[in-house]
Predict the structure.
Amino acid sequence: MILFLTIVSGLAWTVVYADAIRIGFRDRSYAIPAAALALNFAWEAIYATRSIATGITAQGVFNIAWGLADVVIVYTFLQFGRSELPGWVTRRLFIGWALLLGVTSFAVQLLFVVQFGWDDAARYAAFLQNLLMSGLFIAMFAARGGTRGQTLLIAVAKWIGTLAPMIALGWYGNSPLILGVGTLCSVFDLVYIGLLWRARQPGAATG
């Protein structure tokens, strides 16, 4: 069952990243909120590298695939993200902010490793940044005034991709922290799905 849930999560998140790349280039925007994207990229770069160094598992294969996909999503952020900000934010300020996000994200991930060890750090960091992402997707919808740079497919796949490991690591793994944070992710994810669904209905205003 654990392997099955790992594969379900891996495939669902792969769908998230693939559609984020597609929609980013289509809408000339970025489809993953900036802070969550930085944390995800750092997480995947670190744990993909560790997977290669210590032996490839099913999760390791997905980590590597996600890390490669994140490179492209980061490119869409760097290419189109400046247009999402106020006019006083120059290109130089934007790049400086992006670098600060990146350095901070790698530092946070490594601090998790120092504090909790490799296995627990991977799990705790993943769920906490997932909760951040869930909230930031709603904020993105509000800031953009609609669905530009977002899709219902990303929202649903993100929910499933988080729900599966919550069951595997929270329920079967007997972790109240993961179960609790994962449940909160589902609450936010379902709200976001509802917002996107409502925006798709005839007569709804979208950005």
Remarks:
- The helical segments are 2-27, 34-54, 58-80, 91-116, 118-144, 152-171, 176-200.
- Residues 34 and 77 are 8 Å apart (CA to CA).
- The chain has one domain: 2-200.
- The radius of gyration is 17 Å.
